[in-house]
Every structure is written in C-alpha cells, then in structure tokens.
C-alpha cells in the first residue's frame, strides 16, 4: 500500500479500532499500520479526542508498532549499507525509546564537543598526549562520567540521555568517545571486551573499516568508563584471566560497528528484562536477531 498519502476516509478507519470483534480489529489495525509513519500524527490526534480507554490503548499500541517497524526498517538499511556510520545507528536505536528525538540538537552538541577538543589539539602531540587532551575536555570540561549502578536502567544507554545527564554506561560512554575521536581523525576503535566496552588506539585511520582484512596494530587501550584511563595488552589479558575468560583475539582486537550495535541492543534487552519490561525486551531481541543476520556478512 502506498505510504505517501492517506485516503479521505482514514479517520473513519481509525474509528473502527474500538470494534469488539478481535478479527475485525486485526484487519483494521493492519490496514492502518500499512500506511507507516505518515499515519502517526493522525493517530495521535485521534488519541487526544478519544474518550474510550480501550480505543486509546489500541491507538497507543498501534503508534508504537508503527514506530518500531520504522526503527527496524531503518536499522536494516544501515546494515545493508555496510554499517559504516556508528552515530547514525546509535540515533536509530535511541529513536526506539524516544521517537520524537531532536537529531539536529544532538548533532549540534556533538559538533561543539568535537570543535572544543580540536582547538586544543595540534599535530605535534604524541598519541598519548592526544588522549590526555581529549580526556581533559571530555571528562573534566564536559563532565561525562560513569553510572556506577549494579543494574543499569535502559535509559542510561540512550544517546540523548547521555548528552543531557553526562552520565552513561561503559558502552554508551565508549560509543560517544569513539564517535567524537573519529571525527577528529584520532584512530580510536571499539573492543568488544566482556563486561566492559573499551577502546583501542590503533594504526588504522578513523574511516578504515577492513578490521578483519588488515590486522591493526593496537598501541594501547582506553577505558571510557574510568575517565579514559590508558592501559596495555598485558593488563587486558590479566583482566580476562581474572574473570575466567580465555584471551581470545576478539577480546583485544578492534571490532566492527555492527558488533557494537549488536552489543547495544543486547545490553538494552537485558536492561529491559531486569526492569520487568518483557515487551520491550522482546522488541530488542528482534533488533538483536536482525543485527546477528548481518554480523557475519560485514
């Protein structure tokens, strides 16, 4: 069905959502859902004018389903396109919880962070000096910090909340750190370490994606959850031994963006389960399975 316009009788179709017959309701719901995001403003207006609690609940569920389908489709397009831009995917996942997300505001704030760090950098700095300057601006001036809770709530993973509160998980902080660093051509890449997401300073340029083809040389690691603390491979391997994990290559080599987004939706699913929100956990599981289908291809 065409999604670019709504038929004249669309409001009449909405009025049928309160049909007590389950089969009839399903037909109406599916017809409305087929119009996609263009139907959402009209549905929201209908919700405001509805006095029937059943009608309101059905509209809420339908709007959410349309918005989830849009996130799913957009994430699939990102994956099909090669999963190149981490920020784009992070915004997509954030839009799941915050469908009215102001992306322009987020991009503007990230641009400001990039600019302020860029002003303090120069070509004479060593790699360690670059990170020292970066950490000063990121953690002391912009005051980003970790959320040290036993069970992080789902909101702590989303980009808009991170930028507003300046508090995040190791994964959300690490993703933002990586996005900003790569904008500055600092060769920082994610490492899919168990329990903590860390970063690697490598010899790869920021826009190089052939992680599995040209084995990168890791100069050192950065812990975004600990104010950008720098550590070496021996310390990373010691950590793996401490948590009884074999030091496999995937735990200390840079990973692709698709793995990072896969980890994001996985950790969100677990957070929603802890919060007893099984419906949202199930939707995150759908996104997780979508990412997994492309993980081996990219």
The residue fraction in helices comes out at 55-70%
Strand order of the largest sheet: 3-4-5-6
> How many beta strands in the DSSP annotation?
6
Domain module tally:
2
Summarize the helix and strand pattern as letters.
HHHHHHHEHEHEEEEHHH
Radius of gyration: 22 Å
List descriptors.
single chain, 298 residues, alpha+beta, 2 domains, four-stranded antiparallel β-sheet, 56% helix, 7% strand
Task: Describe the 3D structure.
The protein has a 4-stranded antiparallel sheet. It has a two-stranded parallel sheet with strand order 1-2. The chain is built from 12 helices and 6 strands. Helix 8 links the parallel strand 1 and strand 2. It is α+β, with helices and mostly antiparallel strands. It is elongated, with a radius of gyration of 22 Å. Helix 3 runs antiparallel to helix 4, helix 4 packs parallel to helix 12 and helix 6 packs across helix 7. It starts with 9 loop residues before the first helix and ends with a helix. The protein has 2 domains: 71 residues; 210 residues, no CATH class.
Q: Outline of this structure?
A:
With 298 residues, the protein is of the alpha+beta class.
